[in-house]
Design brief:
The structure holds two protein chains of two kinds. Chain A contains eleven helices and no strands. By secondary structure, chain A is an all-alpha fold. Chain B is mainly α. Chain B has two domains: 164 residues, no CATH class; 126 residues. Chain B has 14 helices and two strands. Chain B has a two-stranded antiparallel sheet. Chain B is globular. The N and C termini of chain B lie far apart (52 Å). The chains are: A mainly alpha, B mainly alpha. At the A-B interface, helix 1, helix 2, helix 3, helix 4 and helix 5 of A face helix 1, helix 3, helix 4, helix 5 and helix 6 of B.
């Protein structure tokens, strides 16, 4: 039971919105010490795993070029481009991105998307811009909702697209695990059975994206109503 | 041969540069904390492979303590909105080119560099092709941007600093969570969880076993932040012995959809920081859990759909 202490620390810490970096570190040290290691051993294990997983951070190398393009007016241009398309709404922009993200991931092109590479510089400004073209200035909460849905479209599209591709990590993991248990399966069979969930994912998230437009309209008109009320 | 280590040198230059820009920015009241945080991170990129585990662990603790005491952010805008609008009109769609170079070159690099050899040696480490391709692609994108937009020489690092400080310590959270996962694995957390699951979950019928497996995958993924960590544990605990062997479920359908049920959990947990917490910071959301909130309805409906699909198709 003692090893579960770390999980408890994480849940409580995240629920209280404490500094997540601190919560995770404390949980790691507590879990390690609860399993009978010394403080220094746990710190060393934590340091080793942190350094071994530096590859996760490589995506930040995109920041200089994105910052540079933003400084030169990338977001402003994105909005202008989207304003030229009359049918564009926030929900439809995100629906197109969801479809593209899912199809390219299913073809193994996972690296074509991503939050730092695509969502922050292009997708979110375009969705925001489309909403602004229809509704004018947006309340901050609405703006945040659009951005959050943009990030969600990237995640949903990738997660439920990539498994349709045979050579992706999760398919290989399933195959390797089953092989250790004496069961041989073909990656193609596994990939085929990712398709029903992929279709449902597109239908569900796509519907939610289209409903987003109605929600934006509601929130904008509510905000206008409160701001035009006469003040005493 | 180009190895991951070369990309880490680039990361060291980036984070080290961010530390230097912070040190020189007196519009940030906490600039020395930011300098220390990014400076130590730079050291871990430059020297992490050569320092001992304990020294690395100590450096991580310094970063965590600095982050916990609170980082700041410079307030000076580098370029005014009017200037950006004027620049947008001048450059028009050329602005998209450097940004799009990054994903396209990453993809081409990961395909083409795999089999590229120089004097019988592979040009890049075959095990790390995608990561190295991403690193090289960002350099290519930056060179394209510099050539096309002709900014001041300091602009890339100043702008990178602006973006990185808006993300703040959340930028290193994915790595800390990977480290936590390693400690969890070492302490045998997975075994305890699967024992608990098989002891307390109702598993008396095929449908109940399917639901327990799918929900268990989602929940354990939420705890570990990663469906890959949850899959072997839950499949060895419930998926194979019960759903497949006892109730005769099709092993391909059960495991394929089991993994996808884990992905539903990934959409709902702050432990999957690079998918959920980092984007919230990167997009300046006021609510740190804003992306998770946006995804929960989709995730729950999909989890239910997975249970239905598995129940319908896995039992012939």
């Amino acid at each position: 039971m003692l090893p579960l202490m770390g999980i408890l620390i994480v849940i409580v810490g995240f629920a209280l919105r404490l500094n997540a970096l601190l919560v995770v570190t404390v949980a790691g040290i507590a879990t390690g010490m609860a399993s009978g290691q010394s403080f220094l051993d746990v710190v060393a294990a934590f340091g080793k795993a942190f350094v071994d997983s530096r590859y996760i951070a490589i995506v930040w190398l995109a920041l200089p070029v994105i910052g540079l393009a933003e400084r030169s007016g990338l977001k402003e241009r994105s909005r202008e481009v989207i304003s030229a398309i009359r049918a564009a709404t926030a929900g439809r922009v995100l629906l197109v991105y969801l479809a593209l993200r899912q199809v390219t991931s299913a073809l193994g092109l996972v690296s074509l998307g991503g939050h730092a590479q695509m969502v922050r510089p292009l997708v979110a400004p375009m969705a925001e811009g489309a909403a602004e073209n229809t509704h004018g200035t947006l309340p901050d909460a609405t703006r945040d909702r659009i951005k959050a849905m943009a990030a969600g479209a990237d995640n949903v599209g990738m997660f439920f697209g990539e498994d349709v591709f045979v050579a992706i990590g999760s398919i290989l993991l399933i195959r390797g695990f089953l092989e250790q248990n004496g069961i041989v399966v073909e990656p193609l069979q596994l990939a085929r059975w990712a398709i029903p969930t992929a279709l449902v994912a597109f239908a569900v998230h796509g519907t939610r994206l289209l409903r987003l437009d109605r929600r934006i309209a509601r929130e904008v008109s509510a905000a206008k109503a409160t701001s035009t009320e006469p003040t005493p | 041969m180009i190895k991951l280590e070369a990309v880490y040198v680039l990361m060291g230059l980036l984070t080290g540069g961010i530390a230097v820009v912070n040190a020189r920015d007196d519009s940030n009241p906490r600039r020395w904390r930011n300098t220390l945080f990014w400076g130590v991170y730079a050291l871990l990129f430059f020297a992490g492979s050569y320092l001992g585990d304990l020294a690395n662990g100590g450096l991580v603790l310094v970063m965590v303590a600095t982050a916990a005491s609170g980082l700041g952010q410079g307030t000076r805008e580098s370029v005014s909105i009017a200037d950006r609008l004027a620049s947008a009109i001048r450059h028009r769609n050329r602005l998209f080119v450097p940004v799009l170079v990054v994903p396209v070159a990453t993809f081409l690099g990961s395909v083409l560099l795999k089999d590229f050899t120089v004097a019988g040696q592979p040009l890049v480490d075959p095990k790390q092709v995608t990561q190295i391709a991403l690193g090289l692609a960002t350099v290519l994108g930056l060179c394209t941007g510099l050539a096309m937009l002709r900014p001041p020489a300091s602009a890339p690092i100043v702008e990178a600093r602006r973006l990185m400080d808006s993300v703040g310590w959340a930028a290193v959270l994915p790595q800390s969570l990977a480290a936590l996962g390693a400690v969890f694995a070492m302490a045998g957390v997975g075994k305890v969880v699967s024992t608990l699951a098989t002891t307390y979950l109702p598993l008396g019928s095929p449908i109940a076993a399917v639901a327990a497996y799918a929900v268990g995958m989602a929940l354990f993924t939420m705890i570990m932040g990663n469906a890959f960590a949850a899959f072997p544990v839950m499949t060895a605990g419930i998926g194979l012995p019960l759903v497949v062997q006892q109730y005769g479920g099709d092993v391909v359908i059960v495991t394929a959809i089991g993994m996808l049920s884990g992905f539903c959990g990934t959409l709902m947990t702050p432990m999957a920081a690079n998918f959920n917490i980092v984007p919230a910071a990167l997009l300046d959301l006021k609510d740190r859990y804003g992306v998770i909130r946006a995804q929960v309805p989709t995730a729950l409906i999909l989890l239910a759909a997975n249970i239905v699909i598995m129940s319908l198709f896995a039992f012939p």
